[in-house]
Design brief:
By secondary structure, the protein is of the alpha+beta class. It is built from five helices and five strands, in the order ββαβββαααα. It is an enzyme of class 2 (transferase).
Length: 198
């Protein structure tokens, strides 16, 4: 599970422009990183341009998913992640980032803003924090703990069944042992009966 890009954009009347972004392109080769970053910016702008205001959607491109949230006030966010990353966590992140951005950056700066002029520096920390959704999102953490508990419970049940099979063997052996003990007792009793002292 990996996040590659987190962007905040403004959807204007005629054009979508980037306000701020953060990228993690460390998994790509050094010579591809700038091209990959440009492509992510282009894709983010294109997806926001084609999305309606007040909508959330996910777009699949090869092994990547682009999650977009365009608010009614024209502020938009895009997360680019791999297929394994939970979409719910992406939309939670987008909602949190856009809410924080809208409180820290004046609305009048959105239409004319650019990455150089917008003073908002939390995207890099959010991108690194949300790399592991279990650590960043409480719901994912609970789900992971439930999955682990289910695995432990399943393993415990399997070991109990194995132990149960061994207990069955012991029970059958004890039944055999009980029969032999009874036979031994009867035989011993018969032999000792001649030696009764009166």
């Amino acid at each position: 599970m990996k996040l590659y890009s987190l962007s905040v954009l403004y959807k204007g009347e005629n054009k979508v422009h980037l306000l701020k972004s953060a990228y993690d392109v460390s998994s790509f080769s050094f010579f591809q990183r700038s091209s990959v970053q440009e492509f992510m910016t282009f894709t983010s702008q294109l997806i926001v341009e084609r999305s309606d205001k007040g909508s959330r959607s996910s777009v699949k491109e090869q092994e990547y998913l682009c999650h977009v949230y365009v608010r009614n006030d024209s502020l938009a966010g895009v997360v680019i992640a791999d297929n394994e990353y939970p979409p719910r966590v992406c939309f939670t992140l987008l909602e949190k980032v856009l809410e924080e951005f809208s409180t820290q950056v004046d609305r009048i700066d959105w239409p004319s803003g650019s990455p150089a002029t917008i003073q908002y520096n939390a995207l890099d920390s959010y991108l690194s924090k949300y790399q592991n959704p279990r650590d960043a999102d409480p719901m994912s953490k609970v789900q992971a703990e439930l999955d682990e508990t289910k695995i432990v419970l399943h393993n415990t049940m399997e070991s109990l069944l194995q132990r149960g099979e061994k207990l069955d063997d012991l029970v059958s052996k004890s039944e055999v042992l009980g029969t032999q003990s009874k036979a031994f007792y009867k035989t011993a009793r018969k032999q000792n009966s001649c030696c009764d002292i009166m």
